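Q: I'm writing up a methods section and want to include an example of the input and output format. Could you take the sequence below and give the corresponding predicted structure tokens, formatted cleanly so I can copy it straight into the document?
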Amino acid sequence: MEYRAFSITSPKNKLISIDIIPGHFTTSTSHLTHYLDTSRLKYDALIARDVAREMAVPYLSGSMIDTIVCMEETEVIGAFLAEELLENGGTLVNSDREIRVITPKSNMQGQLIFPRSTERWVYNKHVVLLTAVVASGKSLMQALECLSYYNGLLVGISTIFQAEKVHDISVNSIFTSESIPGYQVYKPDACALCRDGNRLDAVVNHTGYFQL
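A: Here is the clean output for your methods example:
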């Protein structure tokens, strides 16, 4: 599949690009026309730092941020985002001048939870939710339900890529589906690619893809 790959560059920062493979992909909830490889942006320190600098911009006007909750292995970006906010005065209103970077866990029922050691950094705290991709929105809604359960005060949502708006929730994204001609997200029982007889190429999740 890799021979079909191409890259797009962020209009906000020419140093940030993302690799894309067109095809027919499935997640646990959706079928997709493109696979987005966010691995370099999440794991390469220099690129993750550039991503964090762009993500910090909406919060530099004095937003109070106590905690960054990282989803989909975005912890490296989250650490740089915290550093960027602290260095550029975005958290001067914070009482303790600290930003915690944490990740929820999944329990046996698949629900997101925070261990007792970290839940105090969510309860009544100002939180930025950081994720890699917002496609169907199911993972995003699950994360928001988790924050609500722990009484987290949502300041904003930041992501590398946003496919579509979910329940009119505002998301700060570096890339959107408008950057990818033909990008579509389908429910499995209403997939145009399946209807046209196109076989699935791979199963995808936030860790990568598994070719079929």
